[in-house]
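Entry type: protein chain
Record version: 2
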Amino acid sequence: MAWDRDQMAARAAQELKDGFYVNLGIGIPTLVANYIPEGVDVTLQSENGMLGMGPFPYDDEVDPDLINAGKQTISELDRSSYFSSADSFAMIRGGHIDLSILGAMEVSEKGDLANWMVPGKMVKGMGGAMDLVAGVKRVVIVMDHASKAGESKLLHQCSLPLTGKEVVDLVITNLGVFEVERGKGMKLIELAPDVTLDEVKAQTEAKFEVAL
């Protein structure tokens, strides 16, 4: 069966390495904080000016003044630090963040990413996504394989405005895991439990190689 949101987040957490500085995007990526592997020490960074985030708090631990960039209440650690948004983006643009785990609306077979707007819909701004994909060392995308209408979100070419061109390194969907090699294209490296290769092929527009 396909992975659910928590299982996708748990799979994304396997990409974390000890000592990494990591930025988690809005949506499914925020769940990754709850699945950091035992023995792996990572420091989570938020664009709104926080370094060192803990897991989501229980109801009796919520501090309404403590939020991440997605306006979700979060917890702090003994080593947490706070600073301006300008300093936060200096970390990102300066290449000091090892890994960013983001959501997406579309990813092309070359690793192009569209995740900041849908034409015709009001958006408050592009947020930090463009800075993240340009300044972070590795970009992992976590998203549903298909849209609510059942259309593939892994495409030959993105139809929505791009966040970045050839910036994605790994895509984790509810059906499996795809590695993107710059200049070479997309490769299926893992299937979700009980998901078949034929199911993935039927639901994927993008061209991909198989390396299972």
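Comment: The mean pLDDT is 93.
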